[in-house]
Design a protein that fits this description.
Number of helices: 4
Strand content: 25-35%
Structural class: alpha+beta
Shape: globular
CATH architecture of one domain: Beta Complex
Number of strands: 9
Order of helices and strands: HEHHHEEEEEEEE
Helix content: 10-25%
CATH class of one domain: Mainly Beta
Distance between the termini: 53 Å
């Protein structure tokens, strides 16, 4: 894998703020409580995601099914006593793969696979279907009880 060997991101992706309209309202001082709740109640999917998603990775060109997209790069953390698997910590990575958000069902357009390159494990993200320019890249994190997957809408009193 060329990009993994070179330790750099593939071209064709941009990282940007996902909920830009809400962030702009807050910055402009116009996001008072009742207005925000009215917006969120009209946009239920945004309501579930707003607290949790800041940035995301978006395609800057089209990609075909099965295409290598990005690597989730990070520090390989050795397994602690009692744990069976090593982990990859992308906290300090400067690569775009760390900004790929969770997606389920129709939101999901990619999958993460562990591949070995030069006898070292790497987490690579591949397209599961055609991805169009402007689309956010999302894959299923594989954890069912994530807070942003809750369908509960919290009301402000």
């Amino acid at each position: 894998m060329y990009y993994i060997n070179k330790g750099r991101d593939k071209e064709g992706f941009i990282v940007k703020t996902v909920n830009k309209e809400i962030v702009q309202l807050i910055k402009n001082g116009k996001c008072i409580r009742w207005y925000l709740m009215e917006y969120l109640l009209k946009n239920v999917n945004t309501c579930r995601m707003i607290i949790y998603i800041g940035k995301g990775v978006f395609a800057d060109c089209d990609f075909g099914p099965g295409s290598f997209l990005l690597e989730y790069d990070g520090e390989l953390v050795k397994a602690a006593v009692g744990r069976q698997r090593e982990n990859l910590d992308g906290t300090f990575s400067k690569r775009k793969g760390r900004y790929i958000n969770d997606g389920i069902g129709k939101e999901q357009n990619a999958v993460m696979k562990m591949i070995e390159v030069n006898n070292r494990p790497h987490l690579a993200v591949f397209a599961t279907r055609k991805i169009l320019k402007g689309e956010e890249i999302r894959y299923d994190y594989g954890v069912t009880n994530l807070p942003w997957r809750s369908k509960t809408i919290y009301r402000v009193s």
